[in-house]
Each structure stands twice: as structure tokens, then as C-alpha cells.
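Can't attach files on this board, so I'm pasting raw text. These are the components:
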Amino acid sequence: AQSVTQPDIHITVSEGASLELRCNYSYGATPYLFWYVQSPGQGLQLLLKYFSGDTLVQGIKGFEAEFKRSQSSFNLRKPSVHWSDAAEYFCAVGASGGYQKVTFGTGTKLQVIP
Amino acid sequence: NAGVTQTPKFRVLKTGQSMTLLCAQDMNHEYMYWYRQDPGMGLRLIHYSVGEGTTAKGEVPDGYNVSRLKKQNFLLGLESAAPSQTSVYFCASSSSNSNQPQHFGDGTRLSIL
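---
Top answer:
C-alpha cells for the assembled complex are below.
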């Protein structure tokens, strides 16, 4: 069965600093990988996705993520964080075939301080 | 373009009461999902549907029922609400291509007293 681990429950960064959110997955084949962001009181918004090809994927709002098969990781990065990036971030892994079975991590809450 | 719309946004119920949450999508998506979100547990799949007239159990289906009579609508029912069902419920939809992401509604915050 597939699974996702986000080891950091809460992260605090200063505005303008760089950001890296960790995500490790478990899946037997090549996974479909997603990062979503959730602002308070809102649903989940897709930041970026990886299916195949270039292992460095670009997303919206200046985010990027790198798929590393050898480390079973798909970490999310941003070079310079803005106060509006404060939110909760979810990594998810999807399986191919059948219905779209997606497993979500438990989320990382990002706090941005001035 | 509304995307995925959930009704209602908030609701308070007493234990034993019943209610139905409505999800509507205007993207002509084949697949629809109901999740619940609880602190520290991420999103857990309750039920899903791969097409009109079909439903299936997800990870945590007990205490819930669903129906998909029309392609654009996916209803989640609680027949006899329990305090353990206090949660935020999210509906999502996706196309039938498994490499396409799910689109989420804004959620329904449900409290069971």
C-alpha cells in the first residue's frame, strides 16, 4: 500500500528566507506525486505535480519540487518566502490504474515571521 | 466557473440527527470523492465514485452513505450522527486520467454535539 510521510508538523521561517518542506513516499512503482496548499478555511489548491520526465518540477506561486527516486522523496522548495505563503502544505502520492487512489500526508503547517 | 461547490459550509447537529452534504462540480469530471480532515491526520477517504450511479467505500466509510444519481452531484449522508463524526468534510473531483489532480471544494465544517 502507498503511504506518505511529512516529518515536520510545523515549520517557522522568516520572510525572505528559503523554504524546504520534506516529503517521503512509499510506493512500489513510479508514483504520481502532488503538493497541495491549504489556506485557513479553504480547500486544497494544487501547487505542482510530478508524473514523469524532468525530476525538477515548477509550480505556481514560485514553488518547485524535486523527485528523488533513490531517496523516495519529493521535497517542496521556495527560494524566498512571502508572508502570504503561511498555510498548511500537503504532499500526496497517487497510484496509476483504476480509480485515482491518492494518499495524503498529514501536512506541514508553515508560519512566516516578519 | 465554480469548480467544486459544497453545501452547507457549516452545520451543527445533535447526536442521532441525520443530514446530507451536497457536492456539485461543473467540470464534467467522472470521479468524485468525499474526505474528512481531522487535526494531525491529513485527509482520509470516506467514499468515492467513478461514475454516475456507482459508489465505493474508501478508508473510513462506517457511519456514512453516498449517492451519485447525477454525474455532477455527489451526496454524503449521515444517518445517525455521532460526536466522532465532528470534522471538516471535503469533496473533490477529477477526470478519469489518474495522472490528473483532484479539485477540491472549500469544505463543510460539521460539529456533532
